[in-house]
Write a structure and sequence with these properties.
Elements: H1 9-16, H2 20-39, H3 41-49
Protein backbone atom coordinates (compact mmCIF):
# COMPACT_ATOMS: atom_id res chain seq x y z
CA UNK A 1 0.00 0.00 0.00
CA UNK A 2 3.01 2.32 0.13
CA UNK A 3 2.81 2.79 -3.65
CA UNK A 4 -0.41 4.80 -3.33
CA UNK A 5 -0.59 8.51 -2.52
CA UNK A 6 -3.45 10.94 -2.04
CA UNK A 7 -4.60 12.99 -5.00
CA UNK A 8 -4.43 16.76 -4.81
CA UNK A 9 -7.55 18.88 -5.34
CA UNK A 10 -6.35 19.81 -8.84
CA UNK A 11 -5.83 16.15 -9.75
CA UNK A 12 -9.30 15.24 -8.50
CA UNK A 13 -10.87 18.08 -10.54
CA UNK A 14 -8.93 16.98 -13.62
CA UNK A 15 -10.08 13.38 -13.26
CA UNK A 16 -13.72 14.27 -12.60
CA UNK A 17 -13.88 16.70 -15.51
CA UNK A 18 -13.64 19.96 -13.60
CA UNK A 19 -16.17 21.91 -15.63
CA UNK A 20 -18.83 19.20 -15.69
CA UNK A 21 -20.97 20.95 -13.07
CA UNK A 22 -20.85 24.30 -14.87
CA UNK A 23 -21.59 22.63 -18.20
CA UNK A 24 -24.69 21.06 -16.66
CA UNK A 25 -25.81 24.41 -15.21
CA UNK A 26 -25.23 26.12 -18.56
CA UNK A 27 -27.23 23.48 -20.41
CA UNK A 28 -30.09 23.91 -17.93
CA UNK A 29 -30.11 27.67 -18.42
CA UNK A 30 -30.14 27.30 -22.20
CA UNK A 31 -33.03 24.83 -22.00
CA UNK A 32 -35.02 27.08 -19.65
CA UNK A 33 -34.48 30.11 -21.88
CA UNK A 34 -35.53 28.18 -24.97
CA UNK A 35 -38.71 26.97 -23.27
CA UNK A 36 -39.57 30.51 -22.13
CA UNK A 37 -39.11 31.88 -25.66
CA UNK A 38 -41.23 29.12 -27.21
CA UNK A 39 -44.03 29.64 -24.65
CA UNK A 40 -44.18 33.39 -25.43
CA UNK A 41 -43.19 33.37 -29.09
CA UNK A 42 -45.47 36.26 -30.15
CA UNK A 43 -43.96 38.64 -27.57
CA UNK A 44 -40.47 37.47 -28.47
CA UNK A 45 -41.07 38.36 -32.14
CA UNK A 46 -42.64 41.69 -31.13
CA UNK A 47 -39.60 42.51 -29.01
CA UNK A 48 -37.24 41.79 -31.87
CA UNK A 49 -39.23 44.16 -34.08
CA UNK A 50 -39.23 46.87 -31.39
CA UNK A 51 -42.99 46.65 -30.91
CA UNK A 52 -44.90 46.76 -27.64
CA UNK A 53 -45.74 43.71 -25.55
CA UNK A 54 -48.81 41.77 -26.63
CA UNK A 55 -51.22 41.46 -23.71
CA UNK A 56 -53.38 38.35 -23.42
CA UNK A 57 -56.80 38.84 -21.81
CA UNK A 58 -56.98 35.19 -20.74
CA UNK A 59 -54.16 35.56 -18.19
Amino acid sequence: MEKFKELSIDEIKEISGGLGFWATVGAGLIAATTIAIINDWDNFKAGLKGEYEIKNDCE
